[in-house]
Amino acid sequence: MSKEGQITIQFNWIFLLIVGGIILFFFIGLVSVQKKSSEGAVSAELLSQLSTYFTGAGVSIGTVTVYDVPRMHLEFTCDEFVVNDKARRAFSNKVLFTPDEIDDHKMITWTLDWSVPFRVMNLLYITSPQIRYIVFYDPLLGSHENAFFKDFNRSFPPELNYQAYPVMGNDVSDFAFLSDYGNEKIQFINMDSHMHNYLVYQISQEYFNMDNSDMSLVEIEPVGNFMDSGAKVKFHSLNSTDWHQDSALLDQGAGPQIVDYVNSFDDVSLYGAIISRDLEKFYCTLEKMYSNLNRMSSILMMRSQNISNSYYNQCRQVHKKAADALMSLSGVSNPATIKTTAGLLDEYNKEARRYSCAPIY
Hints:
Layout: H1 3-57, E1 64-76, E2 80-83, E3 87-90, E4 96-97, E5 101-115, E6 119-127, E7 131-137, H2 144-153, E8 162-166, E9 185-190, H3 197-207, E10 215-222, H4 226-229, E11 231-238, E12 243-245, E13 248-251, E14 256-259, E15 262-264, H5 267-276, H6 279-308, H7 314-329, H8 335-354
Parallel strand pairs: 4-6, 7-8, 7-9, 9-10
Antiparallel strand pairs: 1-2, 1-5, 2-3, 5-6, 10-11, 11-12, 11-15, 13-14
Helix pairs in contact: 5-6, 6-7, 7-8
């Protein structure tokens, strides 16, 4: 065979390899695009389905619902949720307490009404059976903290994979009854000020075979009488030697400040702290709650002002006092103020009914 013929054959093979490679990469690219498009379509459909669930659950006060869904990865911020890193949607004006993420084929929702004492809105809590909540509390019946725990424990549903344990000793061996059920995440909640967080750290290392990043701690410390002043909520992440208290740069009204705890003022917000697992997101969600409270207070304040201007009897005085109290709520974010004012409004409302006046709310 001539040298020219050999060159021609080699050229043909090279040409075929190039063309074949181009065709192969084309089909690989086409399959990849179709796969991404299909995943995007599935995620968008699941996003729409979840939005329907959230809307429906948000109106069913006091109910706990377990949803079966396709295996998914859900991420939550204060304002939106993302499905499988593909599709996202904002919560709009809804207030939802959620973990950072859920990897499961099941999802749990729990809905509570929030009234202070007038109804403000419904609050939605979202979690997963794979997230376990372990509460440690003071068992002494006469202690203030025991009363605080009972008040908190009254409504928290066991369907949320929630267990509460009395603290009977200060040695890690005293908690040998704890078992690892293979959950994806664990949230420890310490409500006993006599129990050091380091003991909770020892428990996490001794009895649970999990990555440190999958375990977290919320420390809840009553401020005086919880019914009047609420509680301090501190969030902790786990490192190799102990718990590390989290902090965040938050706007406290006077400008951004480094904050390492948040004041919580009632059971519904404490439940939200436990579900949230994150200081910054919990604070953001509380701010949305306050915003709704401020708006409702302003509406009721204007109503009471109009009523007080229309009467010259006892009704005028009752609604004038109510309008002043509601004004203090229309821009408030202080837990103690909310509780005190809520108590006054309850009394004013009873007084209005006693005098056959229009109710405050």
